[in-house]
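<context>
A single protein, sequence plus fold
<sample>
Here is the protein in question:
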Amino acid sequence: MLVISKETLIIVGVLLAVGILGLVLVLTAPRSESVAAGPSAPSAPQTTVATAPAAPPTTQVPAATAVQAPPPTAQAPRTTVPTGSLVQVAQPTETPTASPALPVAAAIDGVIYEGEYAHSTEAGGFQIHWSNDASFLRVGLISPGTGYLAIGFDPDNRMQGANFVLAAVRSGQLWTRDDYGNGPVTHASDVSLGGTDDILAAAGRESEGKTYVEFVIALNSGDRFDKPFTPGTTYDIVISFHETSDDFDTYHSRRGAGKMRLDPG
């Protein structure tokens, strides 16, 4: 028969008490962590509150956009570059020509219609139309090409001595030049020779592979490189044109000659 002493019972009791205490500590430990985690939940709003002051950097974004705004303004002058380039293309002897008020009856608009001019002739596939009064000569030309065209009035020997008007439509704009025949096969602008450009009005266009030009000049411009016209007189004329080139210095594709009689005025 097992006999348990009083001391043994005391030791067993102590061990049981220690074991129970330890079990209680183990069981209560997770609960304390859960409770600790509970307060951490409210801390989340605190992080949100902490990021709220970060909003001011967001308000600085418009400032960054404002810094980028000047480039479009800075680019605005670039829109003037094509115009500037066009002005630089014009030499002192070559003039982009508009169509101001006319010294003769019909409008200068680059459109030549039947009955608009009193007279017409043809030379080398090139049509010449004209009307005049006592002071001005109005001319309409139709070239069978898209390059420059030229007409010379009253030459002495081939080109020499003729009063020339050259014209070309470049990118939709008409360019003209008032020339003088300074040799049998050469001509130069009146301006380069010390005279003046005396084309009073002009207009032109290209359509269906042809070039249409109208212009007005005075019968007597007063320029020593422009021969005066006398109403009622017949004059020799020479014409030339290029099929594709708008460069006045390019040798012409074709040329021709004819006569022009002015009305008494």
Summary: The mean pLDDT is 75. The longest strand covers residues 173-183. DSSP finds five helices and twelve strands in the chain. The chain has two domains: 1-34, 95-261.
